[in-house]
Specification:
The protein has 494 residues and is mostly helical. It has helices at 4-31, 38-56, 59-69, 76-92, 97-120, 123-145, 150-155, 164-186, 200-213, 249-268, 284-298, 302-316, 324-331, 348-364, 369-384, 410-429, 433-438, 443-452, 462-470, 477-490, and strands at 223-225, 231-234, 237-242. The active site is at 259 (proton donor/acceptor).
């Protein structure tokens, strides 16, 4: 006899497969979709979301859940699946189908509007669309919050269990140490910057090899170019994108390593979880921990860059730097810049904290879209000490708000915190890590992450995932120690 749990999981697998199809539409839109198809794609995405929402809020799911939750003999995997399905169902039934479909349609079209406004450096052209997206997300948050904090309700889509108050405390502890360290670094002599031009085809060839070095399985994925690098999909179809700059090969290379971290997480999840709630990363914070540890603690380490230096010279010829140590210093050079995704490791979190504070104010109504550009520019001037020169380097640089991802930004810094915890545990577990990295061997590091984090997918809650991997409660302290030690050494601050 088929149990309620078995019926429910079969239904969820179909829903998961349809969600992957919807995700593929998004990948196509970002990479190869013709510009004139934007409005039609919006209707297609709205239709898919209508179908998905109807399945997620289907009354039968509630019935199957109740029966399955009451059954005896449930194992760890069954209980975890039911926990995820219950959370998703309870949220889905609070959001009207009309609203879910309208959000999908508006954000799909808004993405193209944002891209055009960004290219034209014209925030006013995007503002009406952003107002509509914000209105819909406020409505969704109000429906989900049951009278509680609207921003916290939206945050649960990206980091279940987290609250803005908790994150504010964590970020508040980081901020003074970051600003103090940045001020000290700014007063020290900076390493040389990379100069020259770098063939973009050669960049793509090298970055594809580096992705595979970090364990990306290209038989189950592909690498393409997009305006904003991203990873898409799960299981056996996980795609990544990057971008190139003729004068900055690090942009391409480290964007790729970052997205490889995301993709490797999805590819490593146990195959038996495919299309179930456990078959994807458990939260964006944990997801970001993988991309950031790949990019920074591994990819920007002295040991790995000593190997990468040779790969770069093989691809592009002499780099104008005397040795691998100078290359390491150049890779980790602290520099002025406007763009979050191009920020050095030290200043990155200040970019995130700016967005976190502004989007909370937008959702609460303390800040309106008409005042957003001025608020952004004022905060940037205060945090970084120089003025935003144009909207594409400021309020228009990120795609997130155009697609309704309010609550997503803080998970970037939370991911950095998690990465700091994981890096500390990784070095204890793999004492010869630097020797491996210096030979271009990432298997020890990625194998440890795969075993301790990635393969579990959504089996555990986000914080529990980090605690199980490290044996400790997550804290910002390991990340701050790492940054203070690394940049103190690089800039002679010891």
């Amino acid at each position: 006899m088929t149990t309620a749990y078995e019926v429910l999981i079969a239904f969820e697998r179909e829903t998961g497969a349809l969600a992957q199809v919807a995700g593929r539409l998004g990948w196509d839109q970002e990479t190869v979709m013709p510009r004139g198809a934007a409005a039609q794609r919006g209707d297609e995405m709205a239709a898919m979301e209508s179908v998905l929402h109807a399945r997620r809020a289907d009354p039968r799911v509630g019935e199957w859940l109740a029966a399955a939750e009451a059954a005896d003999g449930l194992g760890e995997v069954e209980r975890a699946n039911l926990r995820h399905i219950r959370r998703a169902y309870d949220r889905a039934v609070k959001v009207p189908s009309r609203l879910a479909s309208e959000i999908a349609r508006v954000t799909s079209v808004a993405q193209g509007t944002w891209a055009e406004a960004r290219a034209a450096d014209d925030f006013a052209a995007f503002a009406p669309t952003l107002r509509e997206v914000l209105r819909l997300k406020r409505e969704e948050g109000a429906a989900l919050s049951d009278g509680g904090d609207v921003y916290d309700a939206l945050l649960q889509d990206y980091e279940p269990g987290a609250t803005a108050a908790q994150l504010t405390d964590m970020f508040g502890a980081m901020r003074p140490r970051l600003t103090r360290l940045i001020d000290q670094v700014r007063g020290a002599e900076a390493p040389a910057a990379l100069s020259g031009t770098f063939d973009e085809a050669a960049q793509m060839a090298l970055t594809a090899r580096i992705a595979q070095t970090f364990g990306y399985d290209t038989t189950r994925g592909r690498l393409d170019k997009a305006v904003h690098p991203f990873s898409s999909g799960s299981g056996n179809d996980v795609r990544i994108t990057t971008r190139t700059s003729l004068t900055d090969p690090f942009n391409c290379l480290y964007s790729t390593i970052h997205e490889t971290g995301h993709a490797s997480y999805e590819q490593a999840i146990a195959q038996e979880y495919l299309f179930t709630p456990l078959g994807q990363g458990v939260s964006m914070g944990v997801h970001e921990s993988q991309s950031r540890i790949y990019e920074n603690q591994l990819g920007r380490s002295r040991a790995f860059t000593s190997w990468l230096h040779g790969q770069m010279e093989e691809a592009f010829g002499p780099l104008g730097l005397p040795d691998a140590e100078a290359f390491y210093r150049t890779v980790n050079r602290v520099h002025e810049g406007y763009i979050r995704t191009e920020a050095d490791e030290l200043q990155y979190n200040l970019h995130v904290l700016l967005r976190f504070d502004l989007e909370r104010a937008l959702i609460s109504g303390e800040l309106e879209v008409d005042d957003l550009e001025d608020a952004w520019n004022a905060r940037f001037q205060r945090d970084f000490g120089f003025a935003v020169d144009r909207p594409s380097n400021g309020v228009l640089q990120d795609v997130h708000w155009s697609v309704g991802l309010f609550g997503y930004f803080p998970t970037y810094s939370l991911g950095n915190v998690y990465a700091g915890c994981l890096h500390e545990a990784l070095r204890e577990a793999v004492p010869d890590l630097d020797t491996q990295l210096a030979s271009g061997d990432l298997s020890g590091a990625t194998g440890w992450l795969r075993e301790n984090v990635q393969r579990h997918g959504g089996l555990y809650e986000p914080r529990e995932t980090i605690i199980r991997a490290t044996g400790k409660e997550p804290s910002e302290e390991p990340l701050m120690r790492y940054l203070e030690t690394k940049f103190g050494n690089l800039y002679g601050l010891d």
